Every structure is written in C-alpha cells, then in structure tokens.
Amino acid sequence: MAQGLKALGGFMVILFALFACFIFAFANRGLAAEDQPAVPSAQSVAPVGGTATDCPQLAEQLQQQKNLISREAGQLKRELAALREDISKPGLKEVFAGIGYIFGLAGIGIYVNNRRRT
Amino acid sequence: MHISDGVLPTSVAIGGFAASVAVIAWSARRTKAEDFPKIAVMTSAFFVASLIHVPIGPTSVHLLIPGLVGILLGNSAFISIALGLLLQSILFQFGGITALGANSLMMGIPALVAGWIFRSWGRGSLTRYVLCGALAGGVGVFLAVLFLAALLLTGGEDFWGVAKIAMYAHLPVILIETCVSGFAVSFLYKVKPELLGSVSPSCSMEQS
Fold this sequence. Notes:
The complex is a heterodimer of chains A (118) and B (208). By secondary structure, chain A is an all-alpha fold. Chain A has helices at 2-35, 55-88, 92-117. Chain A is 80% helix and 0% strand. Chain B has a two-stranded antiparallel ribbon. Chain B is mainly α and 208 residues long. Chain B is 72% helix and 4% strand. The interface between A and B is medium-sized, with 15 and 17 residues.
C-alpha cells in the first residue's frame, strides 16, 4: 500500500514535471511569436520560425519595411519644409507694421520740417 | 529680387552701403517737404507690392514696381526704395541686412532712371504719357535684373548665366509691370495729373 502510494507520488511528480515542461515550452513559443510581429507590420507574409529557409524572406520583409519607413520619412520631410515655408511667409501683422513705420517716419519728417519753418 | 546675406563679398557690401548712403543724401536734398506724404504712400506701395505673387508655371514671381515709384517720385524715389527695402528685410526677411546697400542700389538706381525717362519724355498727349510710363515701368525691372547680375558677378557668379536666368524669370514681371505702369499713369493722368509731376497746368486744366 505504501509502495503503491509512493509509486503514485513519483508518477505524479513526473507528470507535473512534464506538464511544467510543456507549459514552459508553449510559453516560450508564445513569447517568440509575440516578439516577431513587433518588428514587421506585414507579418502575414512570413511564417514564424527561425530555420535557414526563412532567411531570404526575412531579408525581403526587412527591405519592404525599410522602403515603407523611408517613404514615410520623405513625406514628413516634405511636410516639414512646407510648414517652414508657411511660417516664414510674412503675415498681415508684418505688413501693417511696415506701413505703420513708413507713415510714422513720414509724420516725423513733416513734424521736424514744420518746426524748423516756424 | 533680393540678394541674401553672405552672397556678396564684404568689400562690395560695404561699397554698396557707402554708395547708397551717398545717393540717399543726394536724393534727400532734392526732396521737397511737401512731397513727404506722397513718398510715404509710394513707399508703402513698394513695400507691400513684393507680397503680390504672380504664379508662373511651377514657381511664382512678385511685383517690384521700381518703375512706378520712379515715375511718381522722381529724384526722391531712392529714399523711398531704400526705406522700403530696409523694412522688407527686417519684417519679411527678404534679402539680408548686410546686402541692404547693394539691394538699395539694385532697385533704387533703376527707379531713378525710370523717373528720368518719364520726366524727360512723358509730356503732351495721354498716349505719350502712357507709353512713357509703360516704358519706364519695363525699364525699371530690366535694369534691376542687370544690376542683380552685375552684383552677383562680384560674388563670383558667371554674369551672362545669371543674367539669362534672372531675365527669363523676370520676363513676366517686366511684361506685367509695363502694363501696370501704363494703366497707373493713364489713370493718374485722368484723375490727378499733378501727381505725375511734369504735367503742365494747362494740360490739367483741359482735363478738369
């Protein structure tokens, strides 16, 4: 009876260990599967896994991504340049400031001239 | 049409300042106090005209109106142009402060020439006034382009190359300014002929 119990206990320990191993393996696979899509957005093209046959696919995927990113960066740069140009354009404020300066200077000129005459 | 900072060599920039100060002094001595309001109005017009962009193909050019300023102000035109350019460079960042003297010469001398053309040939009939006004307007921009090329030559550029490019770019401006000056002169001749300076009193009496 005691031997039977011991055998059962040993069996359960082995079962538990096996179970733990499975869980650990699955968890690792799940993590690996989660890790990969964080890099590419077009993940559906390439299957999960790291065998030697996937290398060209991976390279192609990276290339695609690089193209995408560089295109987006180009767009952003163009937008930035347009924005900078927009900002550097003189607005209504500057125009009226300039006209005000000109009339003010003319006014000073007329004032000085009139004072000198009287 | 403005030269930016750092394009011209220092000697040319300083020479430009010296020359424009001399011309400003000469121009100021020729200016009568009664003309101050007129000068102010034309300076404002010149100051703002550079914001009127005319789209031509992929780029756009803006009006310069040195000719019109010269027509209306005569010898006082240089003061007006120099002040307008100073404010443009401060407020609009058009052209550099260090190149201000050269820029004033580039726009101011053509204005004086346009004024002389108009004052010496524009008399008599309306047609003659309008033709002279249009010619002065066109010549103003044309000379400004030549001045630009000559100044850039001192900065180490190829004169004819720059002159050709600038001339092509400003050909539409020359055409537009020719028309604008012609119309402005014709309008002023009918409405307020004494603004044109050399209109004889008898002529304006006939009109009114």
